[in-house]
Amino acid sequence: KFFKIKKLGQAEKTELDAHFENLLSRADCTKNWTEKIYRQTEVVLQPNPGARIEEFLYEKLDRKVPPRPTNGEILGQFMLEAAKEFGPGTPYGSTLIKVGDCQRRLGGAEREFLQTSSISFLTPLRNFLEGDWRTISKERRLLENRRLDLDACKARLKKAKTAEAKAAAVPDFQETRPRNYVLSASASALWNEELDKAEHEMRVAQTEFDRQAEVTRLLLEGISSTHVNHLRCLCEFVEVQAMYYSQCHNYMQELQRELGRWAHVRFHVNSHPAGSPTDPSTFLPLNSPSLLETDALQIEEVQPPASGTRKAKVLYDYDAGDSSELSLRADELITVYTVPGMDSDWLIGERGNQKGKVPVTYLELLS
């Protein structure tokens, strides 16, 4: 059922059938690619080889890996400490606090992603390599030993048959030495006994080989279940990865909005130096209605420069902070240009009949 006999010179070799060979090939392919995917996923999740070795040693010692801050969390902590030194009330210090807090949240999200990915994806792959595959390999080695035993029994049986046939040949009754006939009959009886023993040993070897082949076949067919399990784990890994990148994207958008609002305030302050008759802080807060109306009036009066305009693609959604700004939606195209004296972090954007200031960091300028 599981084998065929192939003659190699004068020896006979028991070979597995095509279906069994396909199962073996599929199992080897699964093991090789699972190992490669597992190793490379480890590299992606933990690029530091020293940290990977440390985690491996802790795992072998059956000890819990001590908590280690991510690079993002360390960077965020450095920024927050620097802000204390520079002064949290200064523009640089306050921005360091905003960015540092965002970096710490990004680092926390990364740590959660690494832990979840390890449990949902790496662990099942490792369990296959260190559990199921080792069992399959052990049973395959046993099957190979059973095959070698069976081949040896077949060779012994073939030899016994040949000798028995030779000994059983009809003696020459006209032989002048009858003693030769007696010896021939005795040898024939001995070879008959040897033949019976060889046949018995071969039947036992064949039974053991068939039993081991069946055990190995069932394990190899279980590779299909392994693929189903790894598919489920792969989908979970993709979900976790998508959630992580989405979370990071949201954190960065929130940070950009905060920095954009701060840059907007700086634009107003730079446009009206403190202490001058036109300094808005001399008369009222930056968000007072009268100031917004004045800005809106100024924006409406702005005209494109003679040097021309450019197209820009919006990278992220942006909600206008006041009536002087233009709200943006991701992936839309707008016309942009600058005017003399305008802060470099901002441009004038136009979309149809709408016009307003837009932050440069939200745009991709097109040639």
TrEMBL record:
Location within or outside the cell: Cytoplasm; Golgi apparatus membrane; Mitochondrion outer membrane
Output the InterPro entries linked to this UniProt entry: AH/BAR_dom_sf (IPR027267), BAR_dom (IPR004148), Endophilin_SH3RF (IPR050384), SH3-like_dom_sf (IPR036028), SH3_domain (IPR001452), SH3GLB_SH3 (IPR028503)
GO terms in the biological process aspect are: apoptotic process; membrane organization
Main localization of the protein described in the UniProt heading: cytoplasm
Q: One GO cellular component term, please give it.
A: Golgi membrane
Positions of the SH3 domain: 307-367
SMART domains, alphabetized? BAR (SM00721), SH3 (SM00326)
**A family per Pfam:** SH3_9
Q: Where are the coiled-coil regions?
A: 188-215
Where is the BAR domain positioned along the sequence?
5-268
- Membrane topology field: Peripheral membrane protein
Transmembrane helix recorded as keyword: no
- Answer yes or no on keyword RNA-binding: no
- Which key words tag this protein in UniProt? Apoptosis, Coiled coil, Cytoplasm, Golgi apparatus, Membrane, Mitochondrion, Mitochondrion outer membrane, SH3 domain
Subunit structure and binding partners: Homodimer, and heterodimer with SH3GLB1.
What family is it from? Answer: Belongs to the endophilin family.
Give the protein name, as stated in the record. Endophilin-B1
